Amino acid sequence: MPDKRFNLEDYLKRIDYSGDSQVCAKSLKQLHLGHVMNIPFENLDVFERKNISLELDDLFEKMVKNRRGGYCFEMNSLFAAVLTEMGFSLTRHLARVYHGGFDNSGKTHMVLLVQADGQKWVCDVGFGGNSLAAPLLFEEGLEQQHLGRIHRVMADPVYGYRVEFKTATGFEPIYAFTLEACCPADYLIANHYTATYPESFFRQAQMCALVTATGKITFFDGQLKITDGESLTETTITGAAAIKDALKSYFGVELS
Fold it and tell me: Domains along the chain?
């Protein structure tokens, strides 16, 4: 039997982690921040109609050894494996992404609930939009700020719990999830649908996103946006060669 590729030390180097191995909220926050600031959210393989494997060794090879990124099922699966290896207790859950409501949205997102310091924390290193930069304490109504972003968790009478993001006009839902236990096959099915369904959002355009200490860098369908505090710079990039160069320069993603 071949040796496993997954190696915790290599992952920690990949996310530039300089903390200790203690199972606590401080370490959890540093790990979460390290992941979202060094491993980009991206759908480039989905867009190219390539197979998306959730096998741990494949995830490690792609995101650590090959310095690529991934989308929610890949990113949160790898992060869950890392946390488990370090001794954290966690559960995985499926969420419905908000699209003008939840009633027309299937469970196509993975989110983690992690135990640390006697409390539960929402962890999500694989959401490209108004994503969490750091773990969100699983406490209803508590507004929490990380790197200038404000999120909260709210109970929902129908969909369980909503994660919400604060905009200039108030809080808006991002996704909702229940505490229902899910089996590995549930994620395989959701991942297969998200990666292969012809009308899936992730098959329509190339996208890549990386959190920075002062904002975010995003690429979507030829539009590069760099948010730096209150400043926003937008650039249109056209042509396969120019897009390839931008992905390497801004996200560290080198396509073959």
Answer: 8-199 (3.30.2140.20)
